[in-house]
Specification:
Blueprint: E1 6-7, H1 13-26, E2 47-52, E3 62-63, E4 76-78, E5 84-88, E6 93-97, E7 102-108, E8 138-141, E9 147-151, E10 156-160, E11 166-170, E12 181-182, E13 193-196, E14 202-205, E15 223-226, E16 231-236, E17 259-262, E18 268-272, E19 277-281, E20 287-291, E21 313-319, E22 325-330, E23 336-339, E24 345-349, E25 368-373, E26 379-385, E27 393-399, E28 407-409, E29 420-421, E30 430-435, E31 441-445, E32 450-454, E33 459-462, E34 475-476, E35 481-482, E36 489-490, E37 496-500, E38 503-507, E39 512-518, H2 520-524, E40 534-539, E41 545-549, E42 554-557, E43 563-567, E44 578-579, E45 588-593, E46 599-603, H3 607-610, E47 615-619, E48 624-630, E49 641-642, E50 663-665, E51 671-675, E52 680-684, E53 689-694, E54 717-720, E55 723-728, E56 731-736
Antiparallel strand pairs: 1-35, 2-56, 3-7, 4-5, 5-6, 6-7, 8-9, 9-10, 10-11, 12-16, 13-14, 14-15, 15-16, 17-18, 18-19, 19-20, 21-22, 22-23, 23-24, 25-26, 26-27, 27-28, 29-33, 30-31, 31-32, 32-33, 34-39, 36-37, 37-38, 38-39, 40-41, 41-42, 42-43, 44-48, 45-46, 46-47, 47-48, 49-53, 50-51, 51-52, ...
């Protein structure tokens, strides 16, 4: 797009003046004091938050608001000890919540659902967190403390015994079906809700296939029974009578799975989102309508007798230890309603107004998804959204029957734009980083369309911020749009460079932005290959620039703006080391320079098109190209070890994704590579070893302290002295290097 660079809030003139002074000092002007500026203070811990906030969804264990869950809410179940187990489908895990609010991972782990393209098993019977699930949607717990999991993505029911060992109770991994049988001889199809009775019989609701003829017609929504011995039978194939209409031409009407619960006597109940009723099943499997009336157009919100009551899209049911029945009903918000033994209905709690508040979140129960009732009769409600027009969030609130929540687990992200120090500052999608010679760290704040600055003392400032981003890319800095994810780089005089498609832009310390060089002619002369223009940019202290492209070439731009080919062959792509003029590159990405003048570049972007695996290439000042790390003949991966054996991942495996690796290099010969897909930062050591320095594979959250810690989608990198800076979700972190 045309306006893909600088857009900024109107800069404080004092800040621009201070930058101009810093530039004069770096050039030998000003007061004549040529001593180097002080380095930033080292982080207080090996991994520390430098500025911004790290709140939001994730995988992180912790107490109350220190914990993080995925936005894909799963079902909950009370254990005999008073804990609550929670299916966390977005994290492929089962979480345990104590009455005090401590959230831990009980079982499962591995790739998150949002990283579906990442390698890693999603089915494995093992103990605790060594086991693997695939988007489990619900859990149930028996009186002996055994847990049963609706392992939806694997089409299985799994069992976790009281010792934490995970086994497969019924179904065939990866096979969607509705065949009865014993254990793995039976098939299940996306089990969605699960319940267990006093005798240890497990009930699951699931999907049934559409008819094969066109137009496709719904066939049912089964409830299956699994005995303690693993014998699977069908209680009823079609629970509902009236299918839920589809939305759109390619989304036919369906019978959605019902939500299940059992009482202390062993009776089974089903909250039916299609017929808008609650059913009770006799021990022989015969169903009666407990509350509501099956009829076309019967959806609504009406309390009263069983026959007069109306429900909306029933999405959760829970029964407390006194056999009181509660449902979450998605209609005019998501009211919590109680169903008496005679089927009469009362509304216990509901939001009067579902307008978003000042925090960007709706009031309680407007976005409620799942429900449980603890031993004290308090309601635990998951409230989440992955598609809010404001933000994605995942919370658990615990409510007494009356009054405000007495426990909150998880946090909502707090993106924004605010200058200040440390955690008082706010970012919205910080990306590329660049370290200035004066000690200023520059941050591309993507969603704010701004360039932010972090001074050595931790103070965050802004270089302009316009009201209409992306509309102008040159001119006074406060009228220019810093849109998109493009790289930032700074020369020794304090000039900031970025690019817009094929044009390199330069912002002077005085605040003027102009086109410094136009590479259109050079790039247009190369045979088209994902012609996206420039993909990486780096400047040295003298103002010489290097620009990479997906076409497999690197250009050199001297301080006057003259462009020449530096490395690669415009007529060939591939992977070959040697002199810069004859070396071959595939898709090139981010670049970095070390103090000795060695240039590093990400290669193997779009490997699924080029067939070249991701590597980091090194080009010496003499123009010799070598492969620093990675393997061009293998696909992306997360494998540490010697550089000749290590595997890298440098991008999300999706066309035109801007979630790519960034590079930084220190004076000791170490190169750092961000891997936003696996949510780690890798280190390519001068000792020839590749290691994971920061983060835990597929982890989401932020845990300061000892390395590797936890970091959510690290992206931009910069290094100064013994500190590595990393941009992450709405924050910038700092790592103390040895």
């Amino acid at each position: 797009m045309q306006g893909s660079l600088f857009s900024v809030p109107r800069p404080p003139m004092a800040l621009l003046a201070s930058l101009a002074v810093a530039a004069l000092v770096s050039c030998g002007g000003g007061s004549g004091d040529t001593s180097p500026p002080p380095p930033p203070p080292p982080p207080s811990t090996p991994l520390a938050l430098l500025a911004g906030t790290t709140e939001g969804p994730g995988t992180q264990d912790g107490l109350g608001t220190a914990a993080k869950l995925s936005t894909e809410s799963g079902g909950m179940a009370l254990t005999p000890t008073g804990d609550v187990l929670i299916a966390d489908p977005g994290n492929h895990t089962i979480r345990r919540l104590s009455p005090t609010g401590q959230l831990t991972t009980f079982a499962g782990g591995g790739p998150t659902r949002s990283d579906a393209s990442s390698p890693g098993p999603r089915y494995l019977d093992a103990a605790g967190t060594a086991a693997r699930f695939n988007a489990p949607q619900a859990v149930a717990v028996d009186t002996a403390g055994n847990t049963y999991v609706a392992d939806t993505g694997n089409h299985l029911v799994r069992k976790i015994d009281a010792s934490g060992n995970v086994t497969t109770l019924a179904g065939q991994e990866g096979v969607c079906g509705n065949a009865d049988g014993t254990g793995t001889a039976a098939t299940l199809c996306s089990p969605t809700s699960i319940a267990v009775d006093k005798d240890g019989n497990v009930y699951v609701s699931e999907w049934a296939p559409l008819t094969q003829t066109l137009p496709a017609e719904p066939t049912g929504n089964p409830i299956r029974k699994i005995t303690p011995a693993g014998v699977v039978s069908t209680v009823v194939f079609k629970v509902s009578q009236i299918p839920t209409p589809g939305q759109g031409r390619n989304n036919p009407a369906r019978f959605y799975p019902v939500q299940l619960a059992t009482d202390s006597a062993g009776a089974l109940y089903a909250a039916d989102p299609n017929d808008h009723v609650v059913r009770k099943f006799a021990f022989g499997g015969r169903a009666t309508v407990l509350s509501g009336t099956v009829a076309q157009g019967n959806a609504g919100h009406v309390d009263g007798s069983a026959s007069a009551a109306k429900f909306g899209e029933l999405q959760a049911i829970a029964i407390d230890r006194s056999n009181r029945i509660f449902v979450l009903d998605r209609h005019l918000g998501t009211p919590l309603r109680e169903i008496a033994a005679d089927g009469s209905v009362t509304t216990v709690r509901r939001a009067a107004d579902c307008a978003f508040g000042a925090d960007g979140l709706p009031p309680a129960f407007c976005a409620a998804k799942r429900l449980a009732v603890d031993a004290q009769g308090r309601f635990l409600v998951t409230e989440s959204s992955a598609s809010s027009s404001f933000q994605s969030y995942a919370l658990i609130h615990r409510y007494p029957r009356d009054g405000a929540a007495d426990l909150k687990v998880g946090t909502a992200p707090s993106p924004g734009w605010a200058d200040g120090s440390g955690s008082t500052a706010r970012f919205d999608g910080p990306g590329a980083l660049a370290m200035g010679k004066s000690g200023t760290l520059y941050v591309r704040d993507r969603n704010n369309a701004a360039i932010r600055t972090i001074q050595p003392d931790g103070m965050v400032g802004t270089l302009g911020r316009v009201k209409n981003p992306c509309s102008q890319i040159t001119g006074p800095i406060n009228e220019v749009a810093f849109c998109g994810p493009e790289a930032l780089t700074v020369d020794g005089a304090g000039n900031i460079y970025s690019y817009s498609l094929k044009r390199i832009l330069k912002a002077t310390p005085a605040g003027n932005v102009a086109v410094f060089a136009d590479l259109s002619a050079q790039l247009n002369a190369i045979p088209a290959f994902l012609d996206l223009g420039i993909t990486g940019l780096v400047a040295d202290d003298a103002g010489t620039l290097y620009a990479s492209s997906l076409q497999g070439v690197i250009f050199k731009i001297n301080p006057t703006g003259a462009v020449s080919l530096f490395a690669g062959n415009p007529n060939a792509r591939g992977h070959a080391d040697g002199p810069a003029g004859s070396a071959l590159f595939a898709g090139l990405g981010s670049m970095a320079l070390d103090p000795a003048g060695n240039l590093y570049v990400v290669d193997g972007v779009y490997h699924f098109i080029t067939g070249v695996g991701p590597t980091i290439r090194k080009i010496t000042p003499a123009g010799m190209v070598s492969t620093l790390a990675g393997r061009a003949n293998v696909p992306p991966g997360l494998v540490d070890g010697p550089v000749s054996q290590a595997q890298l991942t440098v991008e999300k495996l999706a066309a035109l994704s801007d979630s790519r690796a960034h590079l930084a290099a220190d004076a000791k010969g170490n190169v750092y590579v961000s891997d936003p897909i696996h949510r780690v930062v890798r280190k390519i050591g001068a000792d020839g070893q590749v290691s994971t320095l920061v983060g835990q594979p597929w982890g989401q959250g932020f845990a300061a302290g000892d390395l590797p810690g936890l970091i959510d989608e690290p992206w931009g990198l910069a290094v100064r002295d013994t500190t590595l800076f990393i941009s992450t979700s709405n924050a910038v972190a700092a790592v103390k290097l040895p």
